[in-house]
Amino acid sequence: MIKETYEKYVLPNILNTCCATKPIDYQRKKIVPNAKGTVLEIGIGSGLNIPFYEGSQIDKIYGLDPSPELCEKAISKAKECDMDIDFLINGAEEIKLKSESIDTVLITYTLCSIPNPADALKEIKRVMKSDAKILFCEHGIATDTKVAKWQNRINPLWSKLFGGCNINRDIPEILLDSGFKIQNLEQMYLPSTPKIVGYNYWGNASI
Length: 207
Ligand SMILES: C[S@@+](CC[C@H](N)C(=O)[O-])C[C@H]1O[C@@H](n2cnc3c(N)ncnc32)[C@H](O)[C@@H]1O
Known about the structure:
Elements: H1 2-18, H2 22-31, E1 37-42, E2 58-64, H3 68-79, E3 85-88, E4 102-108, H4 117-127, E5 128-139, H5 145-161, H6 171-177, E6 181-189, H7 195-198, E7 199-206
Parallel strand pairs: 1-2, 1-4, 2-3, 4-5
Antiparallel strand pairs: 5-7, 6-7
The structure holds S-adenosylmethionine.
């Protein structure tokens, strides 16, 4: 009962606030404007990426997220822009879209929270056109062993408190293991952010 109340009423507001910091907005600006054509955003959450899309390049956006509470916030943001956005309230393990129908997959700060990223990436691959791109920006395991050690220690508790978010995932390895080719990869600690959650990986990948 307490867990359900926390996940329904408290967690969506925590995620919305934690994902709206200035350094994260700066990351969004590097990634989101590159989306074009028919876009699938995985884990659209409260819609924090919506203002960063370059509307003139977008034909349609599908915003997928299993949380109705977060989608409700994203739907309000979608009403304020003039892009065509449809919502799929579902996990990425099952995407109710046709195979080879997507030009760009956008995924920001979500691979950390998907329970089985390999299943989700298999389904993501299915809906991508052969020349489609995944644009990604994620926090993950730091290359600095001291920080990584703390990430591994704290992760079990962190994950319980923050909706299944894992702070110790190896993002490039997850993409490569699922058969994606990473075309461009950058990584660094975000400024003004605790190191255990601040190590970011971003770039793009193709099939
Ligand atoms: C930290 S939030 C990030 C939200 C958003 N992508 C952003 O950049 O602000 C993690 C998101 O992953 C979503 N999520 C959790 N499990 C998922 C799954 N199986 N498939 C897709 N999204 C999932 C959560 O509902 C949540 O919206």
